[in-house]
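Example with several molecule types.
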Amino acid sequence: MTPPGPWKSYCTLVRWDWTREMRRKTTLLSMGVMGLITLFLFSFAIPPEREVLLDTRAGILWVTFLFAATIGIDRAFRADGRSGMLQGLLLAPVRRATLFYARVTSTFVFVVGLQLVLGVLFLVLFNQSLNVDGAITLIATVIATDLGFVTVGVMIGAMTWSVPGGDVLLRILLFPMLLPVFNVAVASADRAFKGQALSTTQLLMLAAFDLTFLGAGHLLFEHLVKDVGSDV
Amino acid sequence: MSGPAFRVTGLWKRFGARDALAGVTLEQARGTCLAVLGPNGSGKTTLLRMLSTLGEPSEGDVEVLGHPLPAEAHEVRSKIGVVLDRHLLVADFTLRESLRMYADLYGLVDATARIEMLADLTGLTARLRDPVRTFSRGMGQRAALCRALLHQPEVLLLDEPFTGLDAGGTRIVERVVTDTRARGGSIVVVTHDLPRAASIADRAVVFAHGRVVFDGAGEEAAAQAAEASR
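Resulting structure tokens for the full complex:
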């Protein structure tokens, strides 16, 4: 018996992650409910006809995305860690980096998918519209931001799932690290609402964050899951 | 193939100020069953975790099937089967799906036949379509055996394999040990079940305070372990 190579293992892990989420839907539901509540609260506070919305809409959108996505990121390892499933995966002949990339991919897909739905709801609730350039800018911003966001979130999730109060710790560690990313993401989303094309500089900045976080995850993940499940 | 199933030399594992393993030197010949006995907190499970690649030593050398750990952990993982205190399966999947996922990760080509054969061996054929979350402790233990045996491992690491099992389940574990040994595989059993350990193991070691305090035949080790637990 020869264990499959990294690519096949990666595809297997992503496929089974997807199957499992479609089966229980707890992550998607939790993220969806949090996103909806946040959107509704903002829509009560800032009605669509208020001028202040023009200055705050990009921020509102990203706060909604951030709150909703953090739930999914927190669950990336917490449920598996507590059930012992993570140990099962660590015992399988799968490279740690492969496990990391697979978990980033499946979480990324859930987060982006949900954000697309929340984005449409945002446009409806706040009576906003996007032209083609704006839509392309927003989608590219979401994808480029989420890749870095999810990557660093999965890394921190791997560190904090076993710690008492780890869900709070995840947010305490994650949000400050993401400030520069969200600064660019909000500015880029603002361009999208103004109907402007994607800024290459902003996209490059987001790509730089993504590469940095992916590189860090590749190097560090093995150490983050060392001694997982140790009961001593 | 030559060399021991595993060899640990001067193995230390520290958790903060506490030494879970304190300079353990031990090796096991291939094709044998080694029972690891001792009171709670004596370092038995920590040793098993080192051998299973889940834990890394603070000091000392670990080799499994000639592969040094953690450097060649990836090679070792495809050759060992591990049963821990939990079944490590996906609770939301059926048993068949859960095992299938692991079969894919191990690259099994005849996964369906293998899953059915193991379900038959462990008496779980009727439960293959049931979600794992509906399993009792004993059923979970049987399912864990299926998972550990999927890829016909050369070394089987069992942590308290008799816990939660009825008489039928216990006989299954004994049969697995016998079959594994018969095909040249090696087994390490960490247990508190002294009579059972004495009956299935070729050799037993007793741990106390992170050290090996006895190394010898099963029956004598059982007496030593009982003494160490007092």
